[in-house]
Give the backbone structure.
Amino acid sequence: MKPLILLTGEDEFDPKSHNPFFLIKRSYGNAVAGAGGTAIMALDPRLYQEYADMADGLLLTGGVDIHPGRYRDIFMDFDPNSGQPAPYVNSVTRDSMDILLCQAFVKAGKPIFGIGRGMQVINVVFGGTLYQDIPTVMQIEHPQGVNHKINLTEGTALYNLLGSSSIVNSFHHQAVKDLGSGLKVAAIAEDGIVEALEHESLPIFGVQWHPETFGTDDEEVRIRHAGIIEPPIEVDPVEMERQAQATMIKKAIPGVATDADSVLPSGNPVFDHFMQLVNKGGRNHE
Amino acid sequence: MNKPVILIMWGSCLDTKFSAHSMMLTKAYSAAITAAGGIPILPLVESQVEDYVAMADGLLLPGAMGFVPRPELARTLALERYSRQAHFETELYQAFRKTGKPILGICAGCQKINCEENGTLHLDFRKMFGREHHQGVTHSVEALPGSWIADLWGTSFFINSYHGFKIAKIGDGLRITAYSEEGIPEVIEHKELPIFGTQFHPERMRGDFPNPPEGPNSEPLFQMFLQACKS
């Protein structure tokens, strides 16, 4: 059987139906599957021990900000420059899910991979802290949606993987401040923002960029969301009838595939690295 | 591990930030499984049906869920639901059915069970029959003595209602074990296999804020399902 990878998802609330719900982008599970793992998502923070017993590795995915109380800080209520409310969203229940699972997998000695927020979770679990908003606190521009260069630290696994420098995407407004104990910086942006972390002795690492968009349509979808509205629907009576038939029997519409329908992305170096750690069973890191 | 692992199917949606294709699950379903002593997990990759069947002890098919950040993307989501989601649901259902592992369908999941067993549905029966069974209307049902639902809750009880489709012809091997006052099917079960379905939402009928408040506590229903998954 393939290694089982547990993923965490967004923890959201639908104001229309008053339902709290979990959500995860398809690209995360597909990237895990493309690297050779079976992907499932955790659905209850109270079961962290059961999940840690069951799964071979943990993938902490991207998402909203971590509550500053988790790293002994207080809310930056207002932007000191503009006086506007500080620009962040958080979820205390998601913090519990991610942190409890991260601690349980650390204890079990099983591999952990953090993406975006997930990397920040790893830092916080090992006692590190965060900058709450890059432009207001650090006084630098690190725009979302703009690719930039990173420099990798010699001697790290990511350096061996990607070389001394690389170009990555960027979708974050918070950054690592003080490093957690046992962690080392594996990559850094030209403006000094920490872009990747590795643990010195445990099979744990995280990246601030989003490698799961590699080989998927996420970038394209984002661009469409930003500016272009879908073309008006041209009603084809035959097609509408076919869709109505499928709806009636709750079966798939024959031959219809959406733009997310693609082959599993394989050859993603960062995910391959994670699966290598998992295949080693969390032993003999480096 | 003695806690049964329950695989819960998702609903297609688009995420708020990027409109990227995503899957979602309303927490009430997973919370009901945890409370009854199970471990809920969500499958994330369509090509891994065999792995999921091997690791899980039972399947929960939930009701329809959807989240569209912008109205003009509604058609994208509808296509997603009736292409990949419907296909994956069929594959999961048939794979679990083949191994004899228990399946519980709720609302749209109950209708899916019926359709997979060659039953049919009435679409938009509210307009066809002038009966409102949507947006949480509360009503009583009559259950057949000796059925699994009557063993749990007796032959008459109150439920919630959130559906626009209803079962028309019952599928092969299935039987209807509870009807509303107007004759709308509310509970089904398979005559031989451990397959159960409810048209109402038992996951909302438990905890501190049960819906409807006058209904029975649904925790025994999930415990019954998990007991079936253990054996």
